[in-house]
Amino acid sequence: MSDALPVTALILAGGEGRRMGGQDKGMTRLAGQPLMHHVIARLRPQVQQLLISANRNLPDYAALGYPVHTDETRWQSMGPMAALASLAATLAHTPGYVQLAPCDAPLLPGHLVHDLLATLQQNPALEIAYPQCGDRPQPAMALAKCATLASVPAYLASGQRSLRGWIASRAAQAVAFDDAAAFANANDPAALLQLEHLLSHDA
Prior knowledge:
This protein is α/β, with parallel strands linked by helices. It has helices at about 35-45, 60, 80-90, 110-120, 150-155, 165-170, 190-200, and strands spanning about 5-15, 30, 35, 50-55, 70, 95-100, 130-135, 135, 145, 170-175.
């Protein structure tokens, strides 16, 4: 990765994992390793630094060797936007960009950051770029200018909670990606099993 790409990856692992029976999805195993390991392996070569947002099993996440941030009390239970609001005061004043990624997306493309960043750099008026496969947007994998995070606390304070809604409220653009499988999530046990089969087939 070029040093000209000042991108911080923020892996979102602070959810409650309700569709996984309450499991911490980041620590749920896929192909013998926690899902978080797969996501880190995909993102680390593409960015300058990596942060983890988590609210439990903090020693396990800290052992991965990257800074771990918890949701501030006032933003708790507000989904992925809670992580952005909790880090807004720090990241909003940081030059560059923040690449979002959920902890349960183990097959992210190796050119994710490159393609999204190219779109933002080609149009300086844009604040956010996000992948889209066909007619399916992927807001949880958006790349945003760090300064844009300054708007998140007010968005949440207004009663809104949707990551997709926040993106829609900003200067954002979809970027087409061809491989829908690269954005597959282990949302529930069935999806995790499908990913297991997919990785076994690729091996």
